[in-house]
Amino acid sequence: MREARRTGDQKLFNNAGQAWNHAFFWACMTPDYQPPSGELAAAIEQAFGGLAQLKDAFVNEGVNHFASGWAWLVAGADGLKVTSYHDGDTPIVHEDGTPLLVCDVWEHAYYLDYKNDRKGFLERWFDQAINWAFVEQQFAAANGQGQGFRYPAPEQDTAGGAADLGGLA
After folding, report:
1. Is residue 132 part of a domain?
2. What's the rounded Cα separation, in Å, for the pair 63 and 49?
3. Which of 36, 78, 79, 134 has the fewest CB atoms lying closer than 10 Å?
4. Is residue 114 part of a domain?
5. Are 39 and 139 spatial neighbours (Cβ–Cβ below 8 Å)?
């Protein structure tokens, strides 16, 4: 993504960004919701005044994001902040900091269940689906403790070739 952005290859950048953003989005969710704790909870308290205020800022950012894109929580030099990007854009190619959390605000993420109620989708997603353990790992990586998310490498078959893609390769 960084090379595509640097060379101005917008098609490659958008496709690579969408793949990366979606993989990160899936890692940000879990069916076993547990609230944030430890250093991340303290950072949320310092930056936003608490989890409820972070939810308000995150939902507001996502609701007010015009058109398709992504709502993000990032950790940077100035602490935590909420931001958003359009299309396949992503904070890893900007100086915003380390991505901690993302929610897809493209209509395909919510329209079947929520129609035009992006806010309802974001509120429920925030309250029930966030994988705060993953976000805590990202926060630790942002603070030099461990490695952050990397796009998953292709699976290998037992013969050492690429994984079977059902004829799509």
Report:
1. yes
2. 21
3. 78
4. yes
5. yes
* pTM metric for this prediction: 0.88
The runs of H, that is alpha helices, within the chain are 2-7, 10-27, 38-48, 51-63, 111-114, 118-128, 132-142
> Who's near 85: CB < 8 A, 6+ residues apart?
69, 70, 72, 91
Question: In this structure, are residues 102 and 69 in contact, taking their beta carbons and an 8 Å threshold?
Answer: no
Is residue 77 in some structural domain? yes
- Encode pLDDT of 100-147 as tens digits: 999 999 888 887 887 999 999 999 999 999 999 999 999 999 999 999
Q: Which residues constitute the domain of residue 114?
A: 2-142
166 within some domain? no
* Residue at 124: amino acid letter: R
Residue 64, CB half-sphere, CA atoms under 13 Å: how many? Answer: 8
* Residues whose CB falls within 8 Å of the CB of residue 112, separated by 6 or more in sequence, listed in order: none
The structure tokens listed for 147 are: 């490695």
- DSSP per residue, 27-50: HTB-SS-B---HHHHHHHHHHHSS
Q: Give residue for tokens 């949320």.
A: 44
CB 88 within 8 A of CB 22: no
Domain count, the chain: 1
